[in-house]
Amino acid sequence: MADNPKKNAEGYNDPTPYEAEKHIRAQIRGQRARAAGNYFEAMISGSCDYYRDRGLAKIEKTPEPMKPLGPKNRKGQFLACYTKQAQPDYGGTLKGGRSVYFEAKHTDDDRIEFNRLTKEQRDDLEHHHKLGAVAFVLVSMGLTECFRVPWPVWRDMAATYGRKYMTRDELKPYKVPVVAGFVKFLDGLPPDVVTVKSLSPEELERLKQELQKQPFIITVREAQP
């Protein structure tokens, strides 16, 4: 047997078996990734039900838009394809009225790539973020650990870390509990409004500077009499 997998036993170029093996391995990896992604989606759906049943949030998966490719048959069936999606994977409303939008990404590696989000998805999260919504990327690593990465942290990944990916260690500050198959992705969200009384202008300014270090937009205003 030849030592070079691209050559046959006689030493001649024979890339066919080599390419076929690569193709099979790629198919297996793709099947595993799809299965893991579907399981992660089921975990999130169960978590959304958990928050809804407790009156804490109403969050739903964004339907994937489809484009019909032909008329319906006698059974009412038709051929269709998924069109390009720009909207975040999930969106809804938190108790109190604030909007929430996020993308969900799974990986079996020890890092998550910036380009897992398309430009359209990044632009959409940025728009929601600027309007005051809670926007983040929910990352699963091996279906055992989950991280709620605030959108500004994901957006500024290259500037912060000097590269377009985050490692498991860098994700640790954003880890959220995973309990009995549920992802508690809303745990520990900072408030959107902090009301304070009896602060001097200097104290109020210092408080603003501290709160600006939080990963989400926080508005500080004095209480009205």
TrEMBL record:
GO terms for biological process: DNA recombination; DNA repair. Keywords: Cytoplasm, DNA damage, DNA recombination, DNA repair, Endonuclease, Hydrolase, Magnesium, Metal-binding, Nuclease. Its main location: cytoplasm. GO terms for cellular component: cytoplasm. It is found in: Cytoplasm. One of its GO terms (molecular function) is nucleic acid binding. The keyword Cytoplasm applies. Its cofactor is Mg(2+). The keyword Transferase does not apply. Belongs to the RecU family. This is Holliday junction resolvase RecU. It comes from Butyricicoccus pullicaecorum 1.2.
